[in-house]
Model the fold of this input.
Amino acid sequence: MRLMTKPVCRVAIPQALEQAFPFVAALLNTLGLSLTNPDTAKVTTWTDDGDQKEIEATKVVGEAVSGAIKNIQFWKTGSEDVFLTWHDHIDKCTFVIYLDGLDSGFAVRLITKFVELALTKLRTRYGEGVALTVEFE
Done:
């Protein structure tokens, strides 16, 4: 039996997490993705032990910046979601966007938004290195 690989988009945002997270969240919102699950009205994150945990939407950025949470889900529908993790570096944040919770067409739209962002708004702020990748895990 062959296991399905998961498509993953990694995007570097040349800002501190405190600014980068709302920036990424706003971009995801333009695509109709929300922190709140439309079926449960909950905002969810996952612990290192694999347990789902609810968090207040107003606390997401603060909890992310403090390191209390390391991931969050954005929802298209109650059964379609994007799992988002991040790594805070000195001069940038790298966001890892797991696309296996979306259909391929929507995943392409999402990646296209990040490509457009990288090539238009952030292009001059990148130094050398990787700005965006699509990988399969």
